[in-house]
Amino acid sequence: MAIFKKNIWLIFYVLALSAALFFLIISYFKWQNTYLKYQTSQENIVELMANATHSVFDTQERLMDILGVTIQTDQHYLNDPQGIEKHVSSLLQNPDVLAFGVTTPEGDFIYGSSHKDPTKIPNIAKQRDSHASFAEALSYETMFLDEPIFRQRFKNGRCRFVKRFVTNKDVLFL
Description:
Number of helices: 4
CATH class: Alpha Beta
Strand order of the largest sheet: 1-2
Largest sheet: 2 strands, antiparallel
Distance between the termini: 93 Å
Protein name: Signal transduction protein
Transmembrane segments: 7-29
Keywords: Membrane, Transmembrane, Transmembrane helix
Oligomer: single chain
Strand content: 5-15%
Order of helices and strands: HHHEEHEEEEEE
């Protein structure tokens, strides 16, 4: 008992230091476990969003493929551009799709869902904000996502999906 009275503060310091060290080690492992859990959760969310985005783009491209092939085989679009509307109606039912257009390689619209008379829609190749991306679209074989355009007066942005189809007479852009 005399040894305890003599070294009581030493025993207290050793126990306090041991308890503090023990709690630091336990806290570190708990933090590491929580960190890994949240890191895995974030990686899963990112992967889920990447797969969903890829799925949306893949669906849009397949739908544009179907529309392009249908428009290619239906040669009435040269004489009656509004005939394209029956092919496009399923695409326009999606609330994320604001408009749909078919242009020539020169940028003149053959069909535009936002206007009944496509000749009154401005030439997309001559517009300042779309000239470079339209020229780039001439080189792509697959669908690509055009650069986003933000309209200040509408307070929103938009992004175009562009797909090129080659017919026997000309090139169509959807």
